[in-house]
Design goal:
single chain, mainly alpha, Sodium/glucose cotransporter, globular, transmembrane helix, transmembrane, membrane, Na/Glc_symporter_sf
Length: about 425
């Protein structure tokens, strides 16, 4: 099955107008920053709707859209376990973790760990976050965006499409800081939800509804609880792997927690996190099940990563396709801007400001912008290498599974057990890394 991946000029116009608007908004917001706190934490003034939508948009990126639909196509709906479990983790975060983190008035999670342990914990976790933000999150989003644009413009080399996307997202992130990221994320959440709902409805109508799926798709593919040897999410993973990955992503990951650190107060931080948890629940219907419907619509696709773009281009008419593509690009830019901004914050706060405490607030902002530019280039250079991996979703989860368990253990033990000390924390990191290797 070879769908036509070309775009009508009307669709291109819709996408172009949206991209220009987002870049303009980011540059405009960038003129309002006076201090490093304004740039990196939006002046700690964000209210809960924007926090919740930014958390959702930063999590449900283009890589997630591609990955959820692709995994639902190849292994079934058990991939949704990552999504509903995220809601549980967010409730845990709101009750047990958030009060400690906001009370500390830190810029970064590694800074919080230094106050609890020592500088070694901060340095290791900063480096790990930087690695995951650039090599995993930003590069994966650029790869997915480049993959889609390569389908639309087959004559353009993929490195050029990746470079163009990096520049677009980098411009408004460098100019506007976290405020630009959060406000554009709110817009992008709306675009993302509209696009996903339209895709879902179109797929269900074409396949013949829910009854057609339940009668023609294997029952195993429609089960959230899978056997121990399942290649997707076996039942044991619900009690081992998912809690570890969930706590890292929602409680430790700088590019997610940074949104909550920008909250006006604890109440707005809590409500924003719970709003994001609520937005995660419909993902089964608007992002996962369309991939299952694709089993019947396109049984001979060569790559699972092509499921979502095939659904878009095969099912949607001119105009509507442009709107949904704008939503897809919104998801792409949301994760890129989030990870670039958080990586910049980590380097500036955890390394530069610590080494040069005499630097002014303005100079720290300048450093942050240059760091964003450097990381944008690094992520764009690494992104084409992901093409060697079969599934983008498996690429993301496998890297996280090897790297995050020691950090999660250190974070949770330090938060809930007062007797935990710096030497024990460092030893847990060393042992965890050796076991992962």
């Amino acid at each position: 099955m070879n769908p036509d991946f070309s775009l009508h000029p009307v669709d291109l116009l819709i996408i172009g107008v949206y991209v220009l608007f987002v870049v303009w908004l980011g540059i405009r917001l960038g003129k309002k920053h006076d201090t490093a706190e304004d740039y990196f934490l939006a002046g700690r003034s964000m209210i809960w709707p924007f926090i919740g939508m930014s958390l959702f948009a930063s999590n449900i990126s283009s890589t997630t859209l591609i990955g959820l639909a692709g995994d639902a196509y190849s292994t079934g709906i058990s991939v949704f376990n990552y999504e509903w479990f995220a809601s549980v983790i967010l409730v845990f975060f709101v009750i047990f973790i958030l009060p400690f983190v906001l009370k500390s008035q830190v810029y970064t999670i590694p800074e919080y760990l230094e106050r609890r342990y020592d500088g070694r914990a901060r340095t290791y976790f900063s480096i790990l976050n930087l690695f995951l933000n650039i090599i995993v999150d930003t590069a994966a989003s650029l790869y997915v965006g480049g993959l889609i644009l390569k389908l639309i413009f087959p004559g353009v080399p993929m490195w050029q499409t990746i470079g163009a996307l990096a520049v677009i997202a980098g411009v408004y992130t460098i100019a506007g800081g976290l405020a630009a990221v959060i406000y554009t994320d709110a817009i992008q959440t709306v675009m993302l939800l509209i696009g996903s709902i339209v895709i879902s409805i179109s797929a269900f109508l074409k396949v013949g509804g829910w009854n057609a799926i339940t009668t023609q798709v294997s029952p195993d593919m429609l089960s959230l609880i899978r056997p121990l040897g399942d290649p997707g999410v076996p039942w044991l993973g619900l009690f081992t792997g998912l809690p570890l990955l969930g706590v890292y992503f929602w409680c430790n990951n700088q590019f997610m927690v940074q949104r909550v650190l920008s909250a006006k107060n604890l109440w707005h931080g809590r409500m924003g996190s719970l709003f994001a948890a609520l937005l995660k629940l419909p993902v089964l219907f608007i992002m996962v099940l369309p991939g299952t419907a694709a089993i019947l619509l396109y049984p001979e696709l060569e790559r699972a990563d092509l499921v979502y773009p095939t659904l878009m281009f095969d099912l949607l008419p001119t105009g509507l396709l442009g709107l949904v593509m704008a939503g897809f690009i919104a998801a792409l830019m949301s994760q890129i801007d989030s990870t670039l901004n958080s990586a910049s914050t980590l380097v500036t706060v955890d390394f530069v400001a610590k080494a040069r405490p005499d630097l002014s607030q303005h100079k720290l902002m300048v450093v942050g912008r240059w760091v964003t530019l450097i990381f944008m280039v690094l992520a764009a250079l690494w992104a084409p290498q992901i093409d060697k991996v079969g599934s983008i979703w498996k690429y993301l989860q496998s890297v996280l599974s090897y790297t995050v368990p020691p950090v999660v253990a250190m974070f949770l033990i330090g938060t809930f057990w007062k007797r935990a000390n710096a030497h024990g924390a460092f030893l847990s990191i060393v042992v965890g890394v050796l076991l992962a290797v």
